[in-house]
Specification:
By secondary structure, this protein is mainly α. The protein has helices at residues 4-40, 47-52, 62-87, 92-121. The radius of gyration is 22 Å and the shape is flat.
Length: 125
């Protein structure tokens, strides 16, 4: 039982993420089921109807926004590593945090590249 007390914040985060993902998946399944029934009945579905049901289009800026947020998280992890390293005697934590920061950092860079390359591929109209 004493082991669960320090682990409880991590368990809570996992439970919250799982619940959020589960409820979003359930909502999406309900929308898909409704759309499938409408298509089977031969109902014409306009983009406005689909949008009103909760199916949202991706914003053209979403890759840019997500990429910048992930790069900011990476820099935050690096700064945290330096701060912890300065407070203690060990500098190994700086390298550990920099390695951890590489994951969201590289994903952020990839999203930024996607934003700029996809922007060039789209026809202007």
């Amino acid at each position: 039982m004493e082991v669960l007390i320090p682990l409880s914040p991590f368990i809570m985060v996992i439970a919250l993420v799982w619940f959020g993902a589960w409820s979003k998946a359930k909502s999406n399944a309900s929308i898909q089921k409704t759309l499938q029934k409408a298509i089977e009945k031969g109902v014409e579905l306009s983009p406005e109807t689909v949008k009103a049901m909760g199916v949202q289009e991706r914003s053209p800026q979403s890759d840019l926004r997500s990429g910048l947020i992930l790069i900011a998280v990476a820099f935050g992890l690096i700064v945290l590593g330096f701060t912890i390293g300065e407070a203690g005697e060990s500098t190994e934590i700086v390298f550990i945090m920099a390695g951890s920061a590489a994951i969201p950092g590289f994903i952020g860079v990839a999203l930024l590249l996607m934003h700029f390359f996809m922007k060039k591929d789209k026809p202007e109209g």
